[in-house]
Amino acid sequence: MKNQKGFSVVESLLSLIIVVVIGSVGWYVAKSRGSTSKTQQSTSKVPISNKASSQCAYIPKQNYPQNEGLYRTSRENAKKIDFDVYLPCNFDKDFNLAELGISGGDSDEVPHVFMRFDHIKQSEQLAGQSFIDIRALPPQHQPPAQCLDKLSASLNARNVRTIPCDKAADSKFGPVYKNKEGDLYITVNNSLIFWTSPPYNDSGNVKPMLDIINSFQKVDPTKLEFYNG
User: Fold this and answer.
1) Residue 12 and residue 97 in one domain
2) Residues 218-224, mean pLDDT to the nearest whole number
3) What's the pLDDT at 1?
4) Which domain holds residue 156?
């Protein structure tokens, strides 16, 4: 009887240990699956830069028949681009893309990609146009002490002029700087993005501009669909 009772106690303890171990393993597996699921969900919300290019602001409806001469020039200039080109996939809803091309085909002008957006209403009370230029990052651009002035951003490289600027915000690409006129500067790798006349609201808040800046995608300039509307 003692041996049977003793055996029963040991057997019970072993059974209990087995149950605890199995339960712990099951709990760990369930937790791991839950954690993996959460990670996958959060990861899927982060990158929006891999969306289809047809959703990007720089892929308009083609109008080659009317402007083949301009497109031919831009395609030739694209071969001279030796810096990374980032363009926005989103823009202010009150603006339409009016022009996209590449200048700098001669020795007097810095090769640069340019975009022009026009306000849909074009009233005197509203900023009628907004421009984005992308060019090679010059050594003179050293914010906040030195930022390129408006003309030097896209014109003769031998006559670079600078003006003071201040840090306005942080984007996913790094700091965003602003000059006294409200123009914005963003450096990405070997490129300088210069945004003239951003569409500020009455408060002058830079936040809407950050949303646009964070939508920038790297593009191949030789494959752009140039536009002049």
Assistant:
1) no
2) 84
3) 44
4) 53-228
